[in-house]
Automatic annotation (TrEMBL):
It is found in: Basolateral cell membrane; Cell projection, Cilium; Nucleus. It comes from Mycteria americana (Wood stork). SUPFAM superfamilies: Annexin (SSF47874). One of its GO terms (molecular function) is phospholipase A2 inhibitor activity. Belongs to the annexin family. Keywords: Annexin, Calcium, Calcium/phospholipid-binding, Cell projection, Cilium, Nucleus, Phospholipase A2 inhibitor, Repeat. One of its GO terms (cellular component) is vesicle membrane. This is Annexin. One of its GO terms (biological process) is calcium ion homeostasis. Calcium/phospholipid-binding protein which promotes membrane fusion and is involved in exocytosis. This protein regulates phospholipase A2 activity. It seems to bind from two to four calcium ions with high affinity. A pair of annexin repeats may form one binding site for calcium and phospholipid. Its main location: membrane.
Length: 474
């Protein structure tokens, strides 16, 4: 079950074939426009077909209600259950008999974390002897007026993402510091003991372990680790112990330090992070390295690529999740006229749109562009640009369309062919391990017909392989 915050649609995705409960079915049948997608079993032909009587949702089916704020009957049903509906931005209705209880609990936690002003109300309702638990998430708009976006093709569903590493329960920094000290003391190093700790603690917990180690032993944990480890496993463990923002800033500094520039690192970080992450990285870069990141970018890059990166450094992308379909249409037309529709390319137009629009807005723009140009926007960028600016613009669009797929592709090419780009492999595994590595793994398997763990296992060895696999999981 998911919702789209952009177009207020509600989706119920079935893990198994399950009859729709009678009270919900009757409600849905009376409302205009329920859509049943991927539903060949019932012979649904068009998107406007209503839900058939006595329907069941088979494996993999998705039921969508466009414009949830217009589904008055559902809102009336909620009010009849004694629930007060605020002016809606969205409402998530999860029905206990359709989804496992564990999934409800996970969803409630994730959605509350995603939308801090959400109020979550749990209730129950009896329908023909069946108890149905409802989980309602209601978000109010300031002023009581919900904006009405222009109808258009459904934008991407907001998806909850999940890292493979979570904070360890019953965490004790002192105990972990003691384990690490014992693993490094005396002759030889117990690498497995170190792996067991670092792969199963969150970044915040690792910072507390570092502080506890210095307090307990008067020694710097990082210096001790560097003296005991070497090679890729050393680089990986040191990366895991860096605070997240510092690691991004450190990666950018090293990408521009010395002879040559690692442009793909600049793209990977600056074109994929949120506004808040970008601003924190820029401040950290200044405080830790005493340098202005914009000046370093200007010194190491040039032309339209330089301008794109400077735009990214501002951390000013619109983050409003509501899609303006009229603007998407206008931007698509503008991009077409700046590229495919003229001789030459107006690069500044591409920079303006791709650097400032929200990711959901860009996704709608991509969809509008394909209708105007009969070609997808990524292909047009391929034709109109080259080199690093092409890679940067495509990275922004790939993040708008499917961020985990972008990182899955980067991981694949870090290991494909002869040799391994270990720095890229380490950087992505570490930086995404608490954000969306679960979804990256899923996309990797879908895109390349092999698991990420399988490819890592065949491309790495020793303690380095063991630690990577412990982070990635099976």
């Amino acid at each position: 079950m998911c919702f789209s915050r952009q177009d207020k649609s509600l989706s119920i995705r079935q893990p198994v074939s399950t009859p729709i409960l009678p009270f919900l079915e009757d409600t849905l049948r009376q409302e205009e426009g329920p859509i049943l997608q991927h539903h060949r079993v019932l012979g649904i032909k068009g998107q406007q077909d209503i839900l058939p009587q006595g329907a069941t949702l088979p494996l993999g089916a998705t039921l969508e209600l466009p414009r949830l704020e217009e589904c008055h009957l559902i809102l009336e049903l909620l009010q009849a259950l004694g629930l007060v509906c605020l002016p809606l931005a969205l409402a998530l209705v999860a029905i206990h008999s359709l989804l496992p209880k564990a999934m409800l609990e996970v969803d409630q936690h994730k959605f509350q974390r995603m939308y801090q002003n959400a109020s979550v109300i749990a209730s129950s309702h009896h329908s023909e002897g069946q108890e149905v638990q409802l989980l309602i998430m209601i978000v109010g708009y300031a002023g009581g007026q919900a904006p009405s976006p222009m109808p258009g093709p459904p934008a991407a569903m907001v998806q909850c993402t999940q890292g493979t590493i979570q904070a360890a329960p019953n965490f004790d920094a002192g105990r972990d510091a003691e384990i690490l000290r014992k693993a490094m003391k005396g002759f030889g190093t117990d690498e497995q003991a170190i792996i067991n700790v670092v792969a199963n603690r969150s970044n915040d917990q690792r910072q507390k372990i570092k502080a506890a180690f210095k307090t307990m032993y008067g020694k710097d944990l990082i210096k001790d680790l560097k003296s005991e480890l070497s090679g890729n496993v050393e680089e990986l463990i040191l990366a895991l112990f860096m605070p997240r923002t510092y690691y991004d800033a450190w990666s950018l500094r090293h990408a521009m330090k010395g002879a040559g520039t690692q442009e793909r690192v600049l793209i990977e970080i600056l074109c994929t992070r949120t506004n808040q992450e970008i601003r924190e990285i820029v401040n950290c870069y200044k405080s830790e390295f005493g340098r202005d990141i914009e000046q370093d970018i200007r010194a190491d890059t040039s032309g339209h690529f330089e301008r794109l990166l400077i735009s990214m450094c501002q951390g000013n992308r619109d983050e409003n999740q509501t899609v303006d379909y009229q603007k998407a249409q206008e931007d698509a037309q503008r991009l077409y006229q700046a590229g495919e529709g003229k001789l030459g390319t107006d690069e500044s137009c591409f920079n303006m749109v791709l650097a400032s629009r929200s990711f959901p807005q860009l996704k709608a723009t991509v969809e509008a562009y394909s209708r105007i140009a009969n070609r997808d926007l990524l292909s047009s960028i391929d034709r109109e640009f080259s080199g690093n600016v092409e890679r940067g613009l495509k990275t922004i669009l790939q993040c708008a369309l499917n961020r985990p797929a972008f990182f899955a592709e980067r991981l694949y090419y870090s290991m494909k062919g002869a040799g391994t780009d270990d720095s890229t492999l380490i950087r992505i595994i570490v930086t995404r391990s608490e954000i969306d590595l679960v979804q990256i793994k899923q996309m990797f398997a879908q895109m390349y017909q092999k698991t990420l763990a399988t490819m890592i296992a065949s491309d790495t060895s020793g303690d380095y392989r063991r630690l990577l696999l412990a982070i990635v999981g099976q």
